[in-house]
Write a sequence for this structure.
């Protein structure tokens, strides 16, 4: 591009025409776009409009190197939409995200990684150099490698080797424990992982002496397990000690406690932060929300939840946070918390009879809400599905046996859901409108309630060769 008529400081160049439309010509199409929208979400245009070059004041810009369909997808994502895309649209979008450095589009494409799209997105990201998308797709393939091995053979050899070098997610569980004493360390205070080949549970690590998993907040963020708060004893005395387990290093560390003591709350990890939502203190329900910035190591308050709530079911779908509230009884309200704007919004409500207990997990753009059946049959678990794209509820066919709480600890990995109780670990295949039992394994060898999650464990934990814990992961080729 030629240096042109833009004069003055960089700030003036950026401000000139900000908020005014510019025509962008791509192939045979012309798009009228707000300059501010392009500057905010696209590094290419941000640099262009600050460059002092002639194009920063032109009313029409010719754009080469991308397809019109990919640019149209980028605009829709920058405007806050979350479009579902065909195979060709995915490739065009990857090309556009890479060439124009559209970070929001790259994040949206990572949300579209499924068993149907992972191979295509992995190859496209490798070709165009979108590292984060490449890693997201490669990790997904690794988690489902048993099901995708045949299709994965079509991947280029360097890409396939990258995938095979990654560590898959492991199903991990911990029972409910109060803090211990140094001299009376309980041998049952352990984290265990599921050895899927042997179909049994194995010891991973011991809980720190002062850690509580009784009514504590438990969440995974960036392959680190966080245990926040909890209680000790029948008096429900709040435990202030909070801990972080680094799965790669196999080490525990202490983190600061929330500013508001709380227990029986929901903890969720998202984009470098933990969110502690609601809970109880001195037997009083709370609506307050705190967020922990992992990098800064500090807690701060966020917008209150819509209602006081304890132990709310939570799930993340398409990089969005959803909480399931019961208010009034037998009404399920699902709210979304939007961290970027720090506000809550009601997504949907469902009226359905229930007795007690519920759980929510996400798969693709579906939220699955599980609850006990009528009070006269509390061991029977019913399930409903809410689709975020269509806004429709569907009652799942059949009943799911809730033998001592198995389905209330569900975790989704790939196209599978894992549930566990003391007698049985059960893997379901998620088929959209139904869950089909797939594998049965040994139950968790501890009594009481169980919390489950996924961690990528160093292979030495499973008696295999160990990759360096700081390995950079796959690089696009």
């Amino acid at each position: 591009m030629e240096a042109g008529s833009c004069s003055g400081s960089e700030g003036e160049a950026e401000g000139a025409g900000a908020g005014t439309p510019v025509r962008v010509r791509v192939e045979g199409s012309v798009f009228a776009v707000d300059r501010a929208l392009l500057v905010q979400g696209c590094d290419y245009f941000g640099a262009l409009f600050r460059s002092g070059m002639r194009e920063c004041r032109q009313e029409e810009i010719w754009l080469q190197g991308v397809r019109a369909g990919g640019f149209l997808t980028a605009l829709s994502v920058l405007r806050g939409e979350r479009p579902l895309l065909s195979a060709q649209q995915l490739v065009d979008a990857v090309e556009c995200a890479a060439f124009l450095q559209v970070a929001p589009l790259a994040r949206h494409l990572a949300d579209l990684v499924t068993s149907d799209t992972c191979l295509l997105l992995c190859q496209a990201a490798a070709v165009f150099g979108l590292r984060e998308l490449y890693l997201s797709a490669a990790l997904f393939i690794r988690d489902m490698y048993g099901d995708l091995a045949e299709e994965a053979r079509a991947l280029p050899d360097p890409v396939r080797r990258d995938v095979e070098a990654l560590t898959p997610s492991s199903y991990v569980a911990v029972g409910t424990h109060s803090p211990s004493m140094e001299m009376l360390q309980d041998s049952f205070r352990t984290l265990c992982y599921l050895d899927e080949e042997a179909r049994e549970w194995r010891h991973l690590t011991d809980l720190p002496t002062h850690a509580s998993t009784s009514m504590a907040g438990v969440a995974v963020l960036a392959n680190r397990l966080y245990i926040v708060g909890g209680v000790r004893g029948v008096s429900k005395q709040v435990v202030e000690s909070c801990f972080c387990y680094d799965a790669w290093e196999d080490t525990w560390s202490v983190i600061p406690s929330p500013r508001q003591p709380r227990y029986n709350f929901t903890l969720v990890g998202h984009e470098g932060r933990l969110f502690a939502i609601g809970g109880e203190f001195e037997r009083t329900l709370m609506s307050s929300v705190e967020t922990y910035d992992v990098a800064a190591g500090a807690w701060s308050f966020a917008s209150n939840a819509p209602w006081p709530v304890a132990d709310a079911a939570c799930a993340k779908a398409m990089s969005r946070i959803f909480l399931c509230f019961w208010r009034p009884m037998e009404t399920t309200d699902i709210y979304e918390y939007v961290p970027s704007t720090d506000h809550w919004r009601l997504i949907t409500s469902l009226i359905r009879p229930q007795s007690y207990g519920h759980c929510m997990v996400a798969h693709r753009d579906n939220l699955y809400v599980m609850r006990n059946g009528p009070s006269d049959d509390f061991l029977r678990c019913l399930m409903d599905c809410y689709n975020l794209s269509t806004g429709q509820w569907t009652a799942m066919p059949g009943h799911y046996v809730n033998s001592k709480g198995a389905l209330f600890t569900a975790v989704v990995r790939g196209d599978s859901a894992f549930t566990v109780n003391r007698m049985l670990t059960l893997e379901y295949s998620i088929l959209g409108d139904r869950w089909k039992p797939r594998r049965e394994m040994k139950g968790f060898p501890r009594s009481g309630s169980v919390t489950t999650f996924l961690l990528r464990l160093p292979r030495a934990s499973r008696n295999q060769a160990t990759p360096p814990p700081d390995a950079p992961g796959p690089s696009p080729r």
